[in-house]
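User: Fold this; tokens only.

Assistant: Input:
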Amino acid sequence: MSACADQLLFGPYGADALEHAGTLAEFGANAVWFHGFNEKAFAACDCHHLAACVEFKTFRADFNRHPELIPIGVDGKPIRVGKLVQGVCLSNQSFLDEIEFSLAEGLKQFQPRGIWLDYLTYAGWFETPDPDLQDSCFCQACITDFCETQHLDADHPSIILQKHAALWHRHKCEKIARFAARYAGLIHARQPDCIIGAYMCPWEPHEHDRAITRIFGQDVNLLADAIDVFTPLIYTTKSGRASDWGREYLEKSADWIPAGKKIQLILDALDFPQSLEAAAASRIPSWGIQVFAGGSIFADRSRAELFRQAVTKIRQ
């Protein structure tokens, strides 16, 4: 990561926060995260000297429009999906080509301070107290890829999970890491100083029977070469967690995050100010802060002042 990336980044997630772009710096914000390569958002950030950071969608799609992207479960049928599922079949090359094309086109037109890869996981959803964790990606193409990569002969999901579960889980993590490396390479080929972040499942490695690797395929050690900043989604209300969850994550993180890697929490405006104040009190500071739907905070000067105070504490 470039020397310019040493500056901690604080601010809201959501382009609507740029309605308050003129006062963000007054209250400690120096960056805004927004979805995709949004021309108006880039212009506003440039005008107000804010770091423009892109949230780039990877493995998420509208399954109502594209049912062919729904991963296959152990029973050979498409997995259960709801409004909030993420993760697509990673053998659908046309979809993967669309992701790369979108990324390449954005990089031709804009120069973001950072790009945060989102939904860089296998299928599931973790922003809930009771996650529906399904083993997935068992279409014939995905099984063939696994068998050829691992030099195995296993033609059914049940055989894979009964006899080769550890290899299957490792295969999933390695595949996600290869995609991360691919996207990082494309970004740095055009913009070597761009910070590369990844939005992460916020669970500790042991939680839900190792679901962060077993289900989602996110292995921080394998991702470390491609990712500069790990950003766990610390949404306490949605996840049914206590307000000090972010602080707890930071203070335990040395147990599993590779040495030297930066952790930047993304908090939820629903949990403001308690989760931010708890994170600001952590012995291990967050590398800046994002606040999802954070524009609402800066619409109210008294709430914005609480943000400024937390930023000051983290910087100290």
